[in-house]
User: Fold N-alpha-acetyltransferase 25, NatB auxiliary subunit from Oncorhynchus kisutch.
Amino acid sequence: MAARGHVQDPNDRRLRPIYDYLDNGNNKMAIQQADKLLKKHKDLHCAKVLKAIGLQRTGKQDEAFSLAQEVATLEPTDDNSLQALTILYREMHRPELVTKLYEAAVKKVPLSEEYHSHLFMAYARVGEYKKMQQAGMALYKTVPKNPYYFWSVMSLVMQAISAQDDKLAQTMFLPLAERMVEKMVKEGKIEAEAEVQLYFMILERLGKYVEALDMVRGPLGEKLTSELQSRENKCMMMYQRLQLWPECNALSYKLLLKNPDEWQFYLSYFDSLFHLMDKSWSPPNEEEHCVEGPVQTTVAEAVKFVVDRMEEEDKKDSRPLRGPYMACLELIHRLRQRGCPDEEELGDPLELMLQFFGKFGDKPSCITDLKIYLHLLPPEQHTQFKNRLGDLVPLGEVGEDGFGFPGDTKVLQRHLCVCQLSRVLGLQHTLDTEGKLCLITELKAHYHYGLQFGKSCLKTELQFSDTYCLMVAHVYIDLWTETGDENMLWQCLGVLEEGLSYSPSNAQFKLLLLLLFCRLGAFHTYSTTP
Assistant:
């Protein structure tokens, strides 16, 4: 137990057997051992609390609570009793009692750093933000360390976040937190990155974006090192809030040259580009474009930039990055929205998606990547697109059942992606009843074949072919909806139950089963579904 590390002589030897029994789950022996010890040492408060823990774990909650309160009313200050009571109250789900415990301890031992910090954490568990602020400041006055000061500041921020009156947050809590941090800044006492992060959060919530930007650009911003490009991300956020589109564009461009797979920077690059175009912004003749460097303001520059990124990826011997190829589709989408003819310079969306599938079709993310750009294809290209995707999936020879199967999980993932895209495009919905039944037969065959790749999977892991099973269920639901044949629904339930037998942790199977049971009015089954 946690308290064992704090047991001090001479009681260490006496209490150790009780701790061992509790640690091993032998609660009855722990109670007996505590009773023996209390007969010899009636004033050993920790033994009473340990007995209470044993009683609590054996279902005797009232007796345990009564015994614990006997000790709590004495306002103990020894570590053993306090730690044991904390564990007991936690198991009783009574965290508010821990605050009273340490309030009394702090009054008796006002210079204890440990008790002050325990009191602060106890307030944090029950959401007493004002008391957290007071406890944090009391702790800082007792032991002047930066973290304790900023505990108090963070408590003010939490009061602002939880305040029902936003005006109160903006006029009292956040300004006070800002002044407290500024005091430390002026005194040169800012030490940790977390302190800078908190300062940034306060300024952002106050809407002081200029001040936040200046802070991040300044010496304090140099402490933002724990996350990759944390400083740049915060600058980008402030540029967007302040609508400083030249800086936003230049920074995005600069960061994408370093990391061409950072999707959020592509979005900020395109956003800023079109804002600048709408405002007819042009760079100064002689001066530098902006503090972040050169700015791109034309579609031609954006097209060239994206094409260059893709060409660089094509030249690589290692596996290419998805970002540039998705950026090309995103730019086509945005240009088409604006009725801009330059999209033709980027290529045909169908060919670009086929290229993307060829490079990344074996990734589970491929379906979600392409799904958002399928609207770029006209309806008359949907079947052609699906057929050409199928040509890129190297299935094995067709067997007696008329189907070819994947040789490994990467090919399986490619075939899954094609099936999912086919459904998203609506090609499965246009099939007649016989066509849907044939599709179900094919998907079932692939599902059962794919189970061999997951023989070594743990129960908590999903099977590689689970998505086939899920698609079978949805096609059955389509048939039930269209024909009203309840047999389709029962077939669907059977497929999902089979899927759960192989993949008991699949949440999608469970949720769909719950939905269908509710539709059938089978609420008892619904309530007992694992």
